[in-house]
Amino acid sequence: MWLQARMFLLITVLFGILYGVIAGIGTWMGAGSAVSYIILAFVFLGIQYLISPAIVGWTMRIKWVSEQEAPELHRMVAELAERANLPKPKVGISQLSIPNAFAFGRTQKDGRVCVTQGILRLLSKEELKAVLGHELAHIKHRDMAVITLISVIPLIMYWIAFSMMWGGAFGGRRQGGGYAALIGLGAFILYFITNLLVLYGSRIREYYADLGSVRMGNMPHHLATALYKLVYGNARMRTSPEMRRVEGVKAFFVNDPSRAWYEVRELAQVDLDMSGTIDYDELLALRQKKVRLDTTQKLMELFTTHPNMLKRIKHLSTLTT
Q1: Active-site entry in 72, 127, 135, 247
Q2: Which residues face 91 on adjacent strands?
Q3: Rounded to whole angstroms, how far apart are CA atoms 121 and 116?
Q4: Which residues lie across from 81 on neighbouring strands?
Q5: Where do runs of H (alpha helix) occur along the chain?
Q6: Is 127 a catalytic residue?
Q7: Residue 37: pLDDT band by 50, 70, 90 thresholds?
Q8: What is the tens place of the pLDDT at every residue in 269-282?
Q9: HSE of 270 in the Cβ direction (CA atoms, 13 Å)?
Q10: Which of 23, 122, 151, 253 is the Cys-Cys partner for 100 at CB 3.0 to 4.6 Å?
Q11: CA dihedral in degrees (204, 56, 303, 183; nearest 10)?
């Protein structure tokens, strides 16, 4: 419940900022100029929303597979989709070696779930099923649409800042008096702030997808182990050319592979017996334990789409019964 409340509050703040800025510009320059920013932003992101599945498919080197080609994978996806009351998504296997999984699609009926070759070699069936549950939860929660919607606001702030400070697009007698530059500076500051808020919203959606996987019947320690293994698997591939290939679409992944190398050391606080897995007892013990993050990791998390992995596994411990 607290995840939904935080997301609702975040959306309220973001659109409150948008309303305040547009109302201010509308008062100063006229409603037409203010509304044009909103129209342009929605058109731009609407096009991005429509073509992004094709971009993701090409970047991730996806091969769509039939039930005959991957029966076990299809069985798990079908079972989870039924539990989530979703149409069965299209199932694909990415030819990338980076161990990970992702989901995308414009609507619930257009859902697509993919796993990489690397994750198929790394996880057990229970762990893979927990990861697939996380991805189906993204589809169920319409996260692609939600994040696209709130991403409009930083984009509007950026365009206002650019046109006011450098574009000289508006003319008018008051522009030379410094009002435009002042508004532009304020819009640029709000662009930075709203960008951080959108990233925070993305991290909330990741926690919410973890919860969604558990609600589909997956055990929290299976998902925790999967995330733990993914961090180590991604860290081993930090110098791989594939890392550069997926840099622009890593927000779709279960975890952020570019941060994995920095998260490895912290995860030693979780795997108490150093077995390479997080069992039920270890996750239950983590619930009562205060996790330690250094200042660098706390700051890095502010600028990422995914929560810090130690915090994320800590959250899973609260779902253990």
Answers
A1: 135
A2: 113
A3: 9
A4: none
A5: 2-29, 31-59, 71-83, 117-122, 125-140, 143-162, 179-215, 220-236, 241-245, 260-263, 280-287, 295-302, 309-317
A6: no
A7: low
A8: 888 788 888 999 99
A9: 31
A10: 253
A11: -100
Q: Tokens 């008062």 correspond to what residue? A: 27
**Cα 273 to Cα 266: distance, rounded to the nearest angstrom:** 15
Do 212 and 26 meet the contact criterion of CB atoms below 8 Å apart?
A: no
pTM above 0.85, yes or no: yes
Overall domain count for the chain: 1
Rounded (10°) angle between helices 280-287 and 309-317: 100
User: DSSP state, 189?
Assistant: H
pLDDT, residue 205, reads 95
The Cα 259–Cα 247 span in angstroms is: 11
Strand partners, 94: 62, 116
**Pairing state between β 90-94 and 112-116:** parallel
Share of the chain above pLDDT 70, in %: 88
d(CA 54, CA 56): 5
Q: What is the three-class DSSP state of 145?
A: helix
Please give the single-letter amino acid code of residue 12.
Answer: T
Range of the domain at 92: 2-317
